[in-house]
Amino acid sequence: MSIVIYTGLSLPYKDANKILEAEYLPPVKRGDIHQLISKRSDIDIIGIIDGEFHQSPAVSHKEILEALNKGITVIGGSSMGALRACELYPYGMIGVGKIFEDYKEGLIDSDDDVAVSLNPETLEAMSDSYINIKYNLKMAVDDKIITNEEMLELLDIAKQTYYPKRTFSYIIKKSNLNSNKQSILLEYIREKDYDIKREDAIEVIEYIKQLGKDNNEYNR
């Protein structure tokens, strides 16, 4: 099967390729999918994990629908993929992961919730996504590092912070937590090292891998 997956930010190519050998491309932007399927007729599956939001116009619904109409399986999760999958699953796009479910259930509703700034050369994130901050702070409440009220204050700061400046360190230092509790929370987050976007990106790759296995067994 011919598989193209747009990632690199939520999950580096080398890590993705350890799970599934496929054609990995940088975060998708407007026109990329239309151009891909116009030039090539061999594409079976397109995976959308990462996409550009503000540096370039975002990938359009129309070109994803164009791919679906050509019989190409389109799967999304983690970041831009989760957002577009939530909008287009009634038309055949497949959504995978917790972030997709959060969009679908209305727990998050904005592209800003998954947005991060990135280094265009290395595709490394330079800020923290609101959704990742949210999941980490919920764990901190469960582990009694902070109270629910403190979590809500921190989430409000995160939501009001422009995404390129949004980091754990920035929002914690802007909060009313005392310096000792700030240090404890930051250390907790560093030790947990939990990244929901990475987890969902891996789930997308695993899902596509299983699709490939099922297809091979079907065609035997």
Short description, anyone?
This protein has 220 residues and is of the alpha/beta class. The protein has helices at 13-19, 32-39, 61-69, 80-88, 98-104, 130-142, 148-160, 168-174, 179-192, 196-218, and strands at 3-6, 23-25, 45-48, 73-77, 94-96.
> Helix share of residues?
40-55%
Return the structural class.
Answer: alpha/beta
Q: Assess the beta-strand content as a share of residues.
A: 5-15%
The number of helical runs is: 10
Number of DSSP E strands:
5
Shape: elongated
Biggest sheet strand order reads 2-1-3-4-5
Low-pLDDT runs: none
Q: Kindly, what is the distance between the CA atoms of the first and last residues, rounded to a whole number of angstroms? A: 14 Å
Task: Report Rg.
Answer: 18 Å
| SSE pattern | EHEHEHEHEHHHHHH
Main sheet summary: 5 strands, parallel
Mean pLDDT: 94
List keywords for this structure.
5 strands, alpha/beta, five-stranded parallel sheet, 220 residues, 10 helices
